[in-house]
Amino acid sequence: MVISAAGPAVPAVVPPPPVPAGPASPVDRLSLDDCRRHAPGFADLLADAVRRHDVSGRALGVRALLHLPRLARWDGTVGRPQVIAELNRNAGRLQRDQRDISKLIPKDKYLLSDLRFVRLRNAEADQVFSRLHYLRSARPGSLNFALIDPVSSLPVTLCSLSPLEWTRVGRQLETQFAVPQGATWDVSRVYSFDVAPANAISYLLARVRQVIRTEIPGAQLLTTAVDPNLGFTGASYRAANWQQWMSIEARPYLYIDGVYVSPRQLRARFGGANLAELSRAYPDGKFERSRARLLDSMIFCCRLRGETIAVEPAERRRLRR
Are 218 and 256 in contact (CB under 8 A)? Predict the structure, then answer.
C-alpha cells in the first residue's frame, strides 16, 4: 500500500512481470539485397534446402539469385514462401545436374600447391559448364584451363576464355585505354567446386595469364564481367591483380517457363531475343523478364604485359546497353 499525504491509502501499482521473449517471427518478404548478402533470413533458408537436397550450397545460392528476380516486385522484395519454393525447385534441378556428371565431381580436398595446372579438354569442360555453371551452358570455341587434383585428375577449379565479343566494351577499351579491337580475350566461364582450396580461382587466373601471354602474342588484355546480382564481388579477380575499369548497365533477366535463359541462348534457340515477338510465335511458352531494378555488372581487366592500372571510381565509365 502507498500512503497518500492528501488522503487515504491507495493500492500500489505493481508492473506486470516481463514476458519472456520468444523467437522472432520470420519476415514475410525478403529483399534481393538481403539475399545477395546472404543475410540471416535467406542464409537459413538456403542452408535448409542444402541439407534436404544434398547439393552444393555455393552453386544453389547463385542459381537461386539468378531466378528470384523473376518473382520480385518493383521494390525488389520477394515473398518468403516464394523464396523457399524457388530454393527447392533449383535444388532439385541442381541435384539432377550433379547426378548427371557425378564422375567429374571431385570429392577430396588438397592443398593449392598439390593441384596441377592443365589445359582442359573441351569434352570435360563443356560437361561441367553445361550442368553446374549457373548459366548451364559452355561458350563454343573456348580455351579451357583447370586446376586438377593429383590423384584422380578431376578438375577442381576451371575457366574458359574466348575472344571478346562484347562490341561496346571493346570500343571503350580502345577509346579509353588504347587496347586495339581484337586484342582482348574474355574469361567467359569460371566454376570452382566446394572442395577447392582458398585462392584457387585467383591462382588459376594468374597461370592463365602466363599461358595466354606466351601462346597468343597479339593478345593484350583479359576481361570479365562480374554480376553483383548473383552475390559476386570480384574478390578473386582483385586477388589476381585485376582492376575494375568500367561498369555496364544491367538488363532484365529473361526466363522461359520459369527458367533463366540468356539472350545468346534465346537467339541460338529461337533466332531472336525479343520476348514480345517470341510470345506471339510460341504461344505455348511462357516468356518473362525481371521487373526489379538490377545492379550494374562490373568489368574487370588485366593487362597481359606490364601493370594493370587502377581506375578511380570517378573515372570509370558506365556503358549503356
Answer: no
The answer to whether residues 36 and 229 touch, using CB atoms and an 8 Å cutoff, is: yes
Q: From 95, 38, 108, select the one nearest 68 (Cα to Cα).
A: 38
For residues 107 and 118, give the distance between their C-alpha atoms in angstroms, rounded to a whole number: 19
Interstrand relation of 243-248 and 317-319 (parallel, antiparallel or unpaired): parallel
C-alpha cell at 313: 571510381
Q: Which amino acid is at 319?
A: L
Q: Are 188 and 160 in contact, with CB atoms under 8 Å apart? A: yes
Bridge partners, residue 143, by sequence? 161
Cα gap 127→139, rounded to integer Å? 11
pLDDT digits (tens, 9 = 90+) for 168-223: 999 999 999 999 999 999 999 999 999 999 999 999 999 999 999 999 999 999 99
- Cα–Cα nearest to 246, from 225, 228, 231, 229: 225
H/E segment holding residue 244: strand 243-248
Separation of alpha carbons 246 and 311, rounded Å: 8
pLDDT number for residue 140: 87
Which residues of the chain form CATH 3.40.630.30?
Answer: 114-253+290-319
Encode 248-278: b = buried (16+ Cβ within 10 Å), e = exposed.
Answer: bebeebbbbeebbbeeebbeeebeebebeeb
Q: Return the closest-CA partner of residue 205 out of 261, 277, 263, 157.
A: 157
Q: CA 104 → CA 93, 99, 101, 131, distances in Å?
A: 17, 10, 6, 11
pLDDT of res. 14? 52
Instruction: Please work out, in degrees rounded to the nearest 5, the angle formed at the alpha carbon of residue 155 by the alpha carbons of 105 and 152.
Output: 75
- Give the C-alpha separation, 225 to 66, whole Å: 15
Domain 114-253+290-319 classification at class level: alpha beta
Q: Give Cα separations from 291 to 5, 49, 72, 251 (angstroms).
A: 69, 26, 7, 10
At residue 22 the predicted structure's pLDDT band, cuts being 50, 70 and 90, is: very low
Q: What is the pTM of this model?
A: 0.88
